[in-house]
Specification:
Blueprint (H helix, E strand, L loop, with lengths): L3 H19 L11 E3 L2 H6 L1 H13 L4 E2 L7 E2 L8 H9 L1 H15 L4 H4 L1 H12 L2 H10 L4 H4 L2 H10 L2 H12 L3 H18 L3 H4 L2 H16 L3 H12 L17 H21 L3 H15 L6 H17 L5 H11 L11 H4 L11 E2 L1 H11 L7 E4 L20 H9 L3 E3 L2 H6 L13 H11 L3 E7 L6 H5 L3 E7 L19 E7 L17
Helix pairs in contact: 3-4, 3-22, 4-5, 5-8, 8-18, 10-11, 10-18, 11-12, 11-14, 12-17, 16-17, 16-18, 16-19, 17-18, 18-19, 21-22
Amino acid sequence: MVLSPLLTPLLLVPAWLHSLWLARSLLSGQWHRYRGFTPLNALTSFFYASQWLNISRFGIRGRSPLVGMGDYPLSRWFHVSFLSSCLYAHAGAVCTLGGTLVWVAMHMAWAGSAGPAWTSVVVGSLLFSSTAYAMAFTRQNYNVLGWLWLPLVLQNLLDGAWGAASAAALAASFASITVVFALTPIAVVLAIAHASWAPVLALAPALAKLVLHVEPVLSQRTSGPAFGAMARIIGASSRGVQYRRTSMGLRPFTVYFLAVYAVACAMLFADHGLPLLPVAALALFAINQVRLRFADEQSLILLFVSTVAADVLATSPSVLDLAALLVAANPLPVFLYLCEFETDRTLVRPRTFAPFDHEPVRTAMERFLAPVPARATVLFAFDDPQGIYERLFDGQRSLIELPLFVAASRDVHLFPDWHAIAETNRVGGPSWWGRTPDAVLTHAKGIGATHAIVYTDSGEALPVAWTERGFAVCSTFDWAACRAELRGDVLWRRRRPPCWWLLSVPGESRPLSDAGRGVEA
């Protein structure tokens, strides 16, 4: 752990070169086949593809019959940026790799004030860091298209170039609402330190742009439920919630990063005094991890590392400052999904990554759901999570986004999803948990589902109780058969791979009527 800031960059030079060589397949096009560089990242990113699919089909002011409870107001997705969402939905791997490389290169904006030599040293340190490598290949999503503007915003804020800072922040707002949200307290800290409101005013155009995101919610008078559901999901409100987060707090990941980042801040302080921006970013990281989950972990990681780089470039060249940057930018690769101790037997040696072609798995999923007619509803049966948010979907959280997307693209409502959880995350709200034939039949009829998906461990037969109760098997999808396509990665938190069974529901279940299926834009 102590030597990681020195060992990791040395190991990353060949890893970067090899991964870039493997990424040359992206030059041939067909970017829609590659949503990421790992099966986990690629399949999870179908969450964002589903968002874009619904927005492009029904409009941000429309209501989708394919999301949540079946009449979902898409205006609740006020946090989605159309441009980056569209790009990421069609070229995920290109976005994360290209966005990260541009984020690193953007630090060259300091070449004029810090000098080209020192700036190049800092930029090289960022490039061959575990942070940059993870953002490119394992951790980032569409938000990277907003974060790539952050170095330019910080450089101009520190130089007092308010117009350029304003333009860069506005550009970031078209790609990510999270970037502008996180930049606001940073600008407030600068304003207090310099006794001037200029840093905050520089963000005014970007903040005004974000107001446009909220306007559809306000105009449809759904702001109360929308903001209330968002508050419950991110942990801002824990009163009366049905599913509470337990992963927030001082878990090992958080403790480790807080310690590493605190050491980096201490090194900067020892060199030239209190580093305002890194300390502010560290406080935001702590709040996000312990109290209020307003952003993904990787977003706050990028924020902190960028503020450290900005602090280093804004002061005179110093070996201690460079060491602080190496510490901040090079947390153990195992914490960034760059290796796995159980399989790789290492904490620091990163894997190499090639673009992951998800099409074979997606095609197999289409065959699995093919028996379901359009405009039908399918219930996915899971165990009761007992009020724990992290137990939702029985350890298959990384697997469900692909069938949700495939179902929506076929005009099929697969239920429940994360949005249904958000809509009903209150004490006394409806639930659909249970994996017995009787429970599934009751819930399926309650939501008008014509089909249900149940699961067993791979290699196990479907219990005869299902056919005795009138269910009929339509198709199966065994994740064990996908090990080759998944490169051997394990995407389920279970002892064995799950096998999904698509069953037709006996009785009077039928698709929802036209009146309950939303209006196309």
